[in-house]
Design brief:
Blueprint (H helix, E strand, L loop, with lengths): L1 H26 L4 E2 L10 E7 L4 E6 L25 E8 H6 L8 H9 L4 E8 L8 E6 L1 H14 L2 E2 L2 E2 L12 E6 L9 H11 L4 E2 L5 H5 L4
Antiparallel strand pairs: 1-10, 2-3, 2-6, 3-4, 4-5, 5-9, 7-8
Pfam families: DUF2459
Protein name: TIGR02117 family protein
Keywords: Membrane, Transmembrane, Transmembrane helix
């Protein structure tokens, strides 16, 4: 009888925690931050890109403020195409990125490690020649000052050694123009790939959710 009572107690606690998480997940993304910030010289284009689940921050590959090709190298991709103009950056769980090409490939062990924050992370980098605005791709113009802040946030997300970003040697790329690099931080139920993108927008003083784990939590602020 004592065992049953203990079991019921743990089940009740689990259900309470789950309900609390869902309520937080639904409510906090509704709260917008950085709405009233005024920018001068809003001239640098950046994009927020989603595939319906995961968001990337897309930046010009080269401008007077940053030349990403010094660290994010074309030769690291299969195509080795040097004619791209934009780079999309996404942070996420390394196990998801490298071991889960489709949802059908998802392992319980990978999901549990990711949810608990015990696994390592990776940066997924994709090169694009053009960007097309649509419901899944929002364009923003930001100031040089805020772009510099965004650069700093992104640079701090990469692991580096002797000043070089650390490429992950893997065949688990998504196409001919993408590559993975080692990243700092841990993925969890409370900090996902979309949380990272949301934090990137906050760092650049752009509109963002107070907190979100979903792409919709970001895009609701960019109708």
């Amino acid at each position: 009888m004592k065992i049953i009572k203990k079991l019921l107690k743990y089940v009740a606690i689990f259900i309470l925690v789950l309900i609390s998480y869902v309520l937080i997940m639904l409510s906090l993304p509704l709260i917008s931050v950085n709405n009233g910030i005024t920018e001068n010289q809003k001239e640098i284009p950046i994009y927020i890109l989603t595939n319906g689940v995961h968001t990337d921050i897309v930046l010009p590959l080269k401008n007077e403020h940053e030349d990403w090709s010094n660290q994010l190298k074309f030769e690291h991709t299969i195509a080795k195409d040097t004619t791209h103009n934009y780079v999309a950056l996404g942070w996420g769980d390394k196990g998801f990125y490298l071991e889960t090409p489709t949802w059908a490939d998802l392992k319980v062990s990978t999901a549990l490690k990711a949810a608990s924050g015990l696994s390592s992370s990776a940066m997924h980098v994709t090169f694009y020649k053009t960007m097309n605005e649509n419901a899944s791709c929002k364009k923003l113009l930001i100031s040089p000052e805020n772009y510099t802040k965004l650069i700093s946030f992104i640079n701090e997300s990469f692991q580096s050694k002797s000043g070089e970003f650390q490429k992950i040697e893997t065949n688990a790329v998504y196409g001919k123009n993408d590559v993975f690099y080692e990243a700092n931080g841990s993925y969890s139920l409370f900090y996902t790939c979309n949380s990272w993108s949301n934090q990137a927008l906050k760092a650049a003083n752009q509109k963002a959710a107070l907190w979100t784990v979903t792409d919709s939590g970001i895009f609701r602020h960019y109708p």
